[in-house]
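Annex B. Sample input.
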Amino acid sequence: MFNRELFERHQTMLDGLPDELNYNELLVAVADQNDPELERLAREYLPITFGRRHGDPSRPWNQFAIKLRDERGDKLLSYEGNWRDIFQNWEALCFSFPEFIESVIAKFLNASTVDGYNPYRITKEGIDWEVEDPDDPWSYIGYWGDHQIIYLQKLLELSNRFHPERLLALMGRPVFSYANVPYRIKPFEDLLEDAKSTVVYDLKAAQRIERRVAEKGADGKLVVDGNGRVYQVNLVEKLLVTLLSKLGNFVLDGGIWLNTQRPEWNDANNALVGHGLSMVTVYYMRRYVVFLQGLLSQASGSVSMSREVSEWFLETAAALRELGPMLDERPATAETRYKLLVRLGQAASRYRRAVYQQEGFSGTVQQGLADINAMLADAHAAIEHSIRHNEREDGLYHAYNLLEVKTDAIVVERLYAMLEGQVAVLSSAAVDPARAVELIEALFKSEMYRADLDTFMLYPDRELPRFLEKNRIPADALESVPLLQRMLDDGDASIVLRDEDGTYRFTPDLSNSGDLRARLDDLVQRYGDEARRAREPVLGLYEEVFNHRAFTGRSGTMFGFEGLGSVYWHMVSKLLLAVQERFFAASKEGADEDIRGRLGRLYYRVRDGLGFNKTPGEFGAFPTDPYSNTPKHAGAQQPGMTGQVKEEILSRFGELGVIVDQGRVQLEVGLLRAREFVARPQPFRFLDVHQQWQELTVPASGLAFTWCQVPFVYRLDPSAEPELTVTLEDGSSQTLTGLMLTPELSAELFTRSGRIRQVELVVRRSQLFSD
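Annex B, continued. Sample output.
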């Protein structure tokens, strides 16, 4: 039960609904009730059964069940899984069930928080978050920021392509909610002080939420207004809060500061939390901002906005507007970075303080769309500047950087190249087709290329130092700190010691700099001012020896999972889809034929490295199954419905030329190869929209597939003019020029109405990709 009061209010209408009805008919019936709360729940309704198996189900956020029947044996619609894996798979689901795109968007947005993050699990019954448990080593408080920007962006793009009018209709409609996760991000000043301890669990708020859930239902986990009803806002506000949350941690030319105790995406880099900067998120923010600019340009006037969100927006807009004149071809100075982060971070901090104290909002104001577009333009300029200054000399782009906060300055240090960064910058469309070719070719020449598998590792492999090669203090460095030498002379090994080989080392029971600080504090009683003077030099020497700041986590120390030498197949398939996007963009932009051909060949070169092209001996497993990763010392590991499945479903439709734009289906076969067509007639069996098995014959020089449970048959004919024929349910047919369905026929396909029986395309070989 989501909302008992709401159910009782509309029980008569709900009881009067037929046993089966079309989803759009449900939305019409709900709209007639003129109740935004009811509309919110209806819009996020998803009549599906789904469970996402992660490669490591031992982790609590990956636990799920696929429930097909209830306790009485009746068919059950149910889903559950962690946030990341639910939404990445639903993107592919939406391509074949496009009428539910906006429902998935609603589910996504309604579960995001007032401060712009997300809980860690999504189920049909609502959301879950972590509660710290001293007996559970996996339990520790921290906000997830998993793929928020790019996951949402891909869903928004799908909606805009399939249903170009629907997002516009929702821009000012208050049918979205905020999750009330009882986490509290500390004030900005505390983040600067210790960016690894930034989230507090609000026990009293959690108890209030529990009581509301007991009284109301799952809606008790959402932010409520002064009357106890779910507080609801429009699409513009929800999309803006997602962006503002990232801008509140934006370091110019560095990336998004990872300071909520969770990695943004790549949890193999989890040690970067606190001092890491994600350029990956910045690349995806570019795509998000450009999309929002296009969406908002189609409307004018103003929208209602929560007062606190409006104030946050205005402060952010002012900071970005004043930055504009300082953006030139030169990298930003450390002082400029600091000033901008302080303004953006304090604006976000003031907003959080207000909504935390109120546990909600104080009212609404009108916000001009022109002002929002102006802010987006300024954000776009800052993002472009950052992307430009994260290009590496080898032609690749930085993925993650390191942040060091000094007095009124922020220093950015660079890490090694990572595959994730190249995928993100290609996906961002920040590089033109010719530069995309250079980047992909540079990737094949990089240390990330793994020749034995003809594919890419997440990061360059490297030799790790042996144990005794670590923790070595140079003699001159130790002698430069008189306290350390005096302690050794006194036989005090509480900070450093000298081993049997005469090597100076930090004592082994110091786990981190926190332990070292505590030890130095204790030494003040014995050594007085000498210990105080030595504090910063000793801490600096400790970092110089261990270089903890450059420690990324298991990606830099382990040889399994997503560690050193590891191929992460989802990321390779993400690369495949990003290259395909650049190929079709090159076609749309009228790029040089040579550039377009090179992108196509690079696409298939990336594709040839994927597991399904390998023998079991090469892959180390059955290549027809998706696997998470392949370390350098073993075959493929961790089978399951990984994200690779989603990317390959989408890229396969792209190969087949299925393109949707402005609500119309276009068959653009420029990436399809002649080898896909069968030489002799073959039977093709499929399940139609009425759930009946059917069979047709694929002709010689033909191929067939289904989309939205409608068969598409392609036929090569060198003598015929290219044409598209749609056969209807009554046996009649329509022949279309331009290889594009009308909006009306496209809608029949999207809704699975059953009116379209078959789509046939006749093409010439010259239209296909020539490799």
